[in-house]
Amino acid sequence: MPTYGGKEVPLYLQVLAALFFVEQKQGWSGIVPRMPTQYQIREPLRRAIEFYLKLDVMERARKRAELQQGLSVLRTEYAELRGALDSAAHLANARVTATNEFGTSAFYRNPLFGIDPDSIDAGEVLTLYQQTDWETLNEGVQRLQLSIRSLAEAQRAPIIGPDGEVLNGELRQDRGRLREITTELQALDDAANMLDMQRGTLERRLRLLKQEQRRYKDIRSLESLGAEFSQHAIAHHDCPTCQQSLDGTEIMSGAPILSTTESSALVDQQVQTITTVIDDAERSTRTNEAACGSLEREAGEIRSRIRAIQADLEGEAPGVSVAQLQKRILEEARLQELLRLRDNAQGTINELIDTHKRAIQVKAQLDDLGDGEFTAKDTRKFNTWQQHLRRLLASYQFTVFAPTEVGIDSQTMRPVHGQSDLVLQLYIVIFMSGTRLVAGNGWCVIAADGGVASRTSRVGGPCRAGAGRRR
User: Fold this and answer.
1) Positive or negative CA dihedral for 120, 124, 125, 126?
2) Consecutive H or E run containing 113
3) What does the DSSP assignment read for 362-429?
4) Which of 349, 283, 336 is nearest to 90 (CA)?
5) C-beta separation of 3 from 39 below 8 A
6) How many Å apart are CA 302 and CA 177, to the nearest integer?
7) Cβ-Cβ contacts under 8 Å for 232 (sequence gap 6 or more)
8) Per residue, what are the HEC states of 275-337?
9) How far apart, in whole angstroms, are the C-alpha atoms of residue 81 and residue 95?
């Protein structure tokens, strides 16, 4: 059986025994038997009943837990691979094309990166910031290869007289581009500062919302136990979560007041919205960082080229242009860096594709299991069990509710009346034998009816005196 810690443990006999034996000290405190909790089994009452009635839903629940655990492992593996790919791209001032988040419906429905898995090329997935636009890694590699080839084939005449005007033109062009880069870097820096401020504000708001979310959960737990905390707080015009007074706040006349459940749902939606906005801000920050890195790299190359051109103009004319030689060296170094990035990223992307395919397969198996509802065979067993309970209540002359109005919740396996749990102190001990339910031999049934305790004899003999004192 799955535990709360994600492990699996046997369905111990102590859990099953709670269905057949009543611990005399506290076991008569309610209808539902007291189940041992030290094994950390999820929903032990439901698991025990499913096992005894041999319901198919139990095996499906176990299989579902295995598949969900498998998805959790794949989620971690996918996050590690994607993080490694983003880190490698960041070092080269590149970025990775955005994909759907793991676990969303679009993630399982659409191909990874929006490309056929059999033709995903790392050079098309990674992008570079080139001046004012983004280009794919393959386009950047081709651009550098063409530039290097043209520089290698260029023949330069000695710089004499009017020939220096060519270098002066290049010098003016490089200085103009350097000024543009400085302006763009300043704008990106301002945008990054604004994003940091907004993200800090959103993170503080998210922490407060999560605190409020926990408070609402506590309030709902108290209300489920019968507390009237929130109604009392609202009646005194105080906030049910932080206890601060609501006097002086803007209140729409006649506006409906949300219940605790509705308020909790509203807070959950706000947490989800702000989390999404923070994720968008982080993606924008990474994009800005990639653009800044690319511009700073280009600025460094331009400064080196300016120094080389000035050396050509101020010194004697060499046989080879220092500026062109410097440019070629920088572009060859950049080309080798991009080629290494593409080769390494291709391996990581192939692993991401494999993880994506396995996640789709596991999700398909999980969907095939359905939503945990009973099969037709399970439904017949469950209805038979429920009918026997009603017959026993009728035979014991139980009159607090009509026996036909009492049922068993298929999710919690607890007796219910309408939509509410049956919380009366109704002491019934039943033994299940095969497919037949009979009254416990030697025990009595005591039901609270209008504040007066009534007692019926056991099936097959008089009621024990000891049990009669348990009213």
Assistant:
1) positive
2) none
3) HHHHHHHTTTS---HHHHHHHHHHHHHHHHHHHHTT--SS-GGGEEE-TTT--EEETTEE--S--B--
4) 283
5) yes
6) 8
7) none
8) HHHHHHHHHHHHHHHHHHHHHHHHHHHHHHHHHHHHHHHHCCCCCCCHHHHHHHHHHHHHHHH
9) 15
At 337, list the tokens. Answer: 């860096």
The band of 236, judged by pLDDT with boundaries at 50, 70 and 90, is low
From the list 355, 376, 379, the residue with the least C-alpha distance to 80 is 355
- Tens-digit pLDDT profile for residues 305-350: 787 777 666 654 455 566 777 777 888 888 888 888 888 888 888 8
Q: Which residues contact 446 (CB under 8 A, 6 or more apart)?
A: 426, 427, 453, 454, 455, 467, 468, 470, 471
Residue 260 identity (one-letter amino acid): T
The answer to pTM > 0.70 is no
Angle subtended at Cα 319 by Cα 318 and Cα 325, rounded to the nearest 5 degrees = 85
Which residue, among 27, 26, 23, 21, has the nearest Cα to 48 in the 3D structure? 21
For residue 332 the two structure tokens come to 């060859």
Both tokens of 34, joined, read 């007291």
DSSP-based helix, strand, coil % in the chain, nearest 5: 60, 10, 30
Model pLDDT for residues 132-174, shown as the tens digit of each residue: 778 888 888 888 888 887 776 664 444 445 556 777 777 788 8
